[in-house]
C-alpha cells in the first residue's frame, strides 16, 4: 500500500515538472529479439534544478518513442545528485509518467550514497536507495547488489558496500563470490551486468583513480570465468562516447556510457546467437554517428 501511494504522489509531482509533448515514433527496438532493453547513464536528478528536469524529460520522451517498448530499462547509478528523498521521488515520478517502473533495473552510485566517504551517511542513504527501489518498483531486494531475470536473460546489479575516498566503489569478496554463483546459474546465455564504476584495465577511462572498484582483479576474473558472453555496463566517468568507451576482452564486453546530460544512451537487442548494441542521441532523436550498431556473437557452449 505504501508503494502505491508513493508511486501516485511521485507521478503527481512529475506533472508539475515536465509535460511531455507528443513525439512521433522515430526508431524501434528489434521486434524479432528475444529481449530488448534501454540502458541509461548517470541521470543526476536534482531537487531544485529545473533545467535538468527539462533535459531528463526530453531524453525520456525521445528514448521511449520507440515502436517496440523495451522489456527492461537499466540505470547505471548516480540517479540522484544527493540521494535525497525528494530527488528519488522525482526520479521515480518521471519513470511512472513513462510507465516503465515495473521494467526498471537500478544500480546505485556514489551520489546516491551522499557523495562522500562517511560511513554514517552510507548507512542511511544505502537503506534509502533500497527502500525506494522496493517501494516504487514493487521489488524486494535487501542489498545494493541483486539480480533479476528479464525474458530469460539475467541482469546482475553490483553496488558499493561503503563510501570510499575518491568515490571508489567497494566490491567485497562476498559480493564477488555471489557474482560467481549468479553467473554460474545463467546456463551460458548472455548476462548483463550493471555497475556504476569502471573496472580498471578495461575501457579507456578506467585508469583514472576515482573511476575504479576495489578488488578489480578479482572482479575481472569472476566476469571472465563465465562460459558465456558478459556485458558490463557502467557510468561514473562522464567521459564522452568514443571507441575507448568499448572494450571487448575475451568473453566480456565492457561499455562505459556517458551521463544523461550528453544525450547518449544505448539499446540492447538479444537473439539466440548474438547481441546487438546501438547508441542513440536521445536529445536529437537520432543514432550516434559511427556507433549505429555493434554485434557481439555469443561463444559456442560445449557440452
What this model shows, in words?
This protein is an alpha/beta fold. It has a single domain (2-297), classed as Purple Acid Phosphatase, chain A, domain 2 (4-Layer Sandwich). 27% of the residues lie in helices and 21% in strands. The chain is built from six helices and 13 strands. Helix 3 (85-97) runs parallel beside helix 4 and helix 5 runs parallel beside helix 6 (216-224). The mean pLDDT is 92.
Q: How are the secondary structure elements laid out?
A:
Elements: H1 2-15, E1 35-40, H2 50-63, E2 72-76, H3 85-97, E3 104-107, H4 119-137, E4 146-150, E5 153-157, H5 173-184, E6 191-194, H6 216-224, E7 230-234, E8 246-249, E9 252-256, E10 264-270, E11 274-281, E12 286-287, E13 294-297
Parallel strand pairs: 1-2, 2-3, 5-6, 6-7, 7-9
Antiparallel strand pairs: 1-10, 4-5, 8-9, 10-11, 11-12, 11-13
Describe this structure in a few short sentences.
The protein is α/β, with parallel strands linked by helices and 303 residues long.
Amino acid at each position: 500500500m505504501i508503494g502505491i501511494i508513493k508511486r501516485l504522489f511521485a507521478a503527481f509531482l512529475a506533472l508539475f515538472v515536465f509535460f511531455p509533448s507528443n513525439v512521433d515514433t522515430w526508431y524501434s527496438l528489434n521486434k524479432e529479439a528475444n529481449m530488448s532493453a534501454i540502458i541509461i547513464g548517470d541521470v543526476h536528478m536534482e531537487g531544485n534544478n529545473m533545467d535538468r528536469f527539462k533535459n531528463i524529460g526530453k531524453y525520456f520522451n525521445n528514448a521511449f518513442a520507440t515502436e517496440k517498448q523495451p522489456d527492461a530499462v537499466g540505470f547505471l547509478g548516480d540517479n540522484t545528485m544527493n540521494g535525497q528523498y525528494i530527488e528519488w521521488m522525482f526520479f521515480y515520478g518521471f519513470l511512472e509518467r513513462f510507465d516503465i517502473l515495473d521494467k526498471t533495473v537500478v544500480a546505485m552510485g556514489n551520489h546516491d550514497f551522499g557523495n562522500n566517504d562517511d560511513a554514517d551517511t552510507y548507512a542511511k542513504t544505502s537503506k534509502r536507495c533500497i527502500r525506494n527501489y522496493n517501494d516504487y518498483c514493487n521489488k524486494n531486494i535487501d542489498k545494493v547488489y541483486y539480480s533479476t531475470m528479464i525474458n530469460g536473460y539475467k541482469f546482475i546489479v553490483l553496488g558499493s558496500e561503503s563510501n570510499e575516498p575518491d568515490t571508489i566503489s567497494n566490491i567485497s569478496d562476498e559480493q564477488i563470490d555471489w557474482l560467481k554463483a549468479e553467473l554460474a546459474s545463467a546456463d551460458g546465455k548472455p548476462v548483463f551486468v550493471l555497475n556504476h564504476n569502471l573496472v580498471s584495465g578495461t575501457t579507456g577511462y578506467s585508469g583514472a583513480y576515482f573511476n575504479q572498484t576495489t578488488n578489480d582483479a578479482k572482479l575481472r576474473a569472476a566476469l571472465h570465468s563465465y562460459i558465456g558472453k558478459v556485458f558490463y555496463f557502467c557510468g561514473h566517468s562522464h567521459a564522452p562516447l568514443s571507441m575507448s568507451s568499448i572494450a571487448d576482452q575475451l568473453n566480456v564486453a565492457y561499455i562505459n556510457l556517458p551521463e544523461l546530460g550528453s544525450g547518449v544512451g544505448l539499446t540492447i537487442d538479444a537473439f539466440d546467437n548474438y547481441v546487438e548494441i546501438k547508441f542513440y542521441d536521445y536529445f536529437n532523436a537520432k543514432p550516434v554517428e559511427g556507433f549505429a550498431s555493434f554485434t557481439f556473437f555469443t561463444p559456442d557452449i560445449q557440452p
